[in-house]
Please model this.
Amino acid sequence: MVRSSDDNDANKSLAKKLKDAEISLPIVYGNIAFWLGKKASEYQSHRWTVYVRGATNEDLSVMVKRVVFQLHSSFNNPMRVVESPPFELSESGWGEFEIAITLHFHSDVSDKPLHLYHHLKLYPEDDSGSMSVKKPVVVESYDEVVFTEPSESLLVRVQNHPAVVAPRLPAGSLPPRILG
Model:
């Protein structure tokens, strides 16, 4: 395929970084755990899911390529890679431990992964001493991942995505050229 100089100029413009602009990705990461009841095995007393999702449960795959969950070394295959949404992992066990969560972004978003840490919580905080099979334990953290100076192409791609907070553009337009 032969490209005209106009095509090359358009490609350069799409790869151009936007100074003084930023894209924010609000995320929630955490776990939900269910006690399996008195008949459960002592080593499999809970079923739990650890996750990373949009702040109001949106699909993050517009920005996130994959998520790696590093479980306790006592698990078979403790490093788990989730390549597509939902970015979550379910297991069963009896103990609480720290889970390292690494977000890998698409190449036009960032070449640096983001490392998060979450303490898996299985048991309720209150001292009543009674666990219920009906009431799960939920522990979540909210954060906003901010990407500075995004490319024009990334901004166009995520412009109307519900998981992403990006500067709004007029319909059908690219951001204005920033002279530097």
User: Anything to note?
Assistant: Helices lie at 5-15, 152-158. The first helix runs from residue 5 to 15. The chain is about 10% helix and 35% strand.
